[in-house]
Write a structure and sequence with these properties.
By secondary structure, the chain is α+β, with helices and mostly antiparallel strands. It has 16 helices and 18 strands. It has helices at 5-30, 45-51, 72-84, 135-142, 159-164, 172-175, 203-209, 246-259, 298-310, 313-316, 328-332, 336-340, 355-368, 415-428, 447-451, 456-469; strands at 36-39, 65-68, 89-92, 108-111, 118-121, 126-129, 147-148, 182-188, 194-197, 219-226, 228-229, 233-242, 264-271, 286-295, 319-326, 344-352, 377-382, 401-408. The two termini are 40 Å apart.
Length: 482
């Protein structure tokens, strides 16, 4: 096409006019946001960027904008702005996911940690919660009403990311994995629409919300949860067993798991615990066995604990504290693994049906070639038994027991050696591995582990739903997959 001088000037004037209007158009959606907006040119950008990840060691990934939403309207405006300006979105609830996937290079980080409203319907036994509310805060609100929820074992973990990735919570053998208690969810889609996902409306979205993890193709702004009657009595016993007797303790735990009632939760953590006044490096390696009874009465809770009391575990222990009545607040207190959490660098997990074999293998490696940091530990949950009837959730049941291990880094130069140690441990535990839990893996390093969080059919269905609801890939997929 031949362009005359007059035509060229008209085209140039039109282009200049469009460019002059562009800042207004770009800012139109952002101007609707009441929450804070931090760009790369903000003098405090680096402080805000680092604060988005809860762990001490931050990845070198830099979003172009951080939007700290205060409401669903803020989320809608942020999604519209990102879509219209070619910015991919990563979402954050409280930044506890160990893969640090909320920090991506470029794009927009949508932070929902300030959205913390809770609306409880005690008569119906349900609650609407926003993603930023912390686990212990939520329990504090439900407990006076005689209601409870399988919230995270760590008090400060926000419900948003915890729920969408599955949710390994308190009393799980009875209450199931937390995402199965999501009744409904309000989701902001890539096109800016807000839709409600229930079993009757947008059921495929609800299916995905129940376990898809940080690769979900939308922004959940509210969850409706089913609550449970609060146990009448919570009683806990704890034993510290020398690591030399770990194989014996594991065999006993395996036997107890096979015969115990489901209201008895059994946990075992191997690390350098106890001996107050000593640094982790000065402590002995022990297996801390916790037995927590969620009873219908205090006498029932004591009865639940009786098989543990009568087992050889108490006699093996170098220290013990038995049958202590607990409130929810006390249950959250005094967990040494929580104190070390910010130092976590390399994390992995497996579902397994042979927890004795897996922990024995990992324990032997731990003693022969210890991780660099004495803060490191590994954790097991025995017979958590998530419901095998998982057709209504993307979360996939693959094993009766859960094992995760956490390598700490006191200094930045420990991070890469920890990854190398982890690579070898992952390979060693492959014979015991039946699947993985999406909230505690690094899919950027172990993409096959992410796929193994889901059955092949569910993995394929998640991909099809992503193509349907986010065809232009406005939302980041899982780390390492986008």
């Amino acid at each position: 096409m031949t362009l005359t001088r007059r035509g060229f000037l008209a085209w140039l004037n039109g282009l200049l006019a469009a460019l002059l209007q562009l800042p207004a158009a770009v800012g139109a959606e952002l101007s609707k946001i009441r929450g804070q907006i931090i760009g790369r040119d903000d003098p405090d950008y680096e402080l805000w960027r680092k604060s988005m990840v809860w762990y001490l060691h931050k990845p070198a990934r830099h979003p172009d904008k951080i939007v700290r939403a205060e409401s669903r309207d803020d989320v809608i405006a942020a999604v519209n702005h990102a879509r219209e300006n070619g910015l991919k979105i990563a979402t954050r609830a409280t930044g506890h996911n160990p893969a640090r996937g909320c920090l991506r290079e470029g794009g927009l980080l949508l932070d929902t940690s300030q959205m913390r409203e809770v609306d409880i319907d005690a008569d119906a036994g349900t609650a609407w919660v926003e993603p930023g509310i912390r686990s212990a805060e939520f329990i504090e609100l439900t407990d006076p009403l005689g209601l409870a929820f399988p919230a995270a074992h760590t008090d400060i973990v926000g419900l948003g990311g915890y729920l969408i990735g599955g949710g390994l919570g308190w009393n799980m053998p009875v209450w199931d994995i937390a995402c199965r208690s999501i009744i409904a969810a309000d989701v902001v889609l890539a096109d800016g629409r807000v839709v409600r996902a229930t079993t009757d409306e947008n059921a495929d979205l609800l299916w995905a919300v129940r376990g898809a993890g940080p690769g979900f193709f939308g922004a959940v702004v509210r969850y409706q949860l089913r609550l449970f009657p609060t146990p009448k009595a919570i009683v806990k016993s704890k034993y510290l067993v020398p690591v030399e007797r770990l194989p014996e303790a594991l065999e006993e735990l395996d036997g107890l798991t096979a015969t115990r009632e489901r209201q008895l939760e059994l946990l075992a953590v191997v690390g350098r615990f106890g001996a107050s006044g000593k640094t982790p490096a000065e402590r002995d390696l022990v297996c801390a066995v916790s037995a927590i009874a969620f009873g219908d009465s205090e006498s029932h809770a004591m009865k639940l604990l009786e098989p543990v009391r009568q087992s050889p575990v108490p006699a093996m222990s170098v220290a013990k504290r038995e049958e202590v009545p607990m409130s929810w607040a006390q249950l959250y207190g005094g967990n040494e693994t929580d104190f070390t959490s910010p130092f976590r660098t390399a994390i992995h997990n497996i579902w397994t049906n042979d927890l004795v074999g897996a922990m024995t293998t990992l324990g032997a490696r731990w003693q022969e070639t210890p991780p660099r940091s004495p803060r490191s530990f590994f954790l097991s949950a025995w017979g958590v038994n998530p419901s095998q009837d998982d057709a209504d959730s993307s979360f996939t049941y693959t094993g009766d027991h859960y094992l995760s291990w956490y390598l700490m880094g006191d200094e930045d130069d420990q991070v890469e050696p920890n990854h190398a140690w982890m690579d070898e441990a992952v390979e060693m535990l492959a014979p015991y591995t039946r699947g993985h839990y999406p909230n505690e893996i690094n899919p950027g390093r172990y993409p096959d582990a992410l796929r193994a969080c889901f059955s092949p059919e569910k993995w394929e269905r998640l991909g099809a739903l992503r193509a349907q609801y986010d065809p232009d890939a406005v939302f980041h997929s899982w780390l390492g997959f986008s």
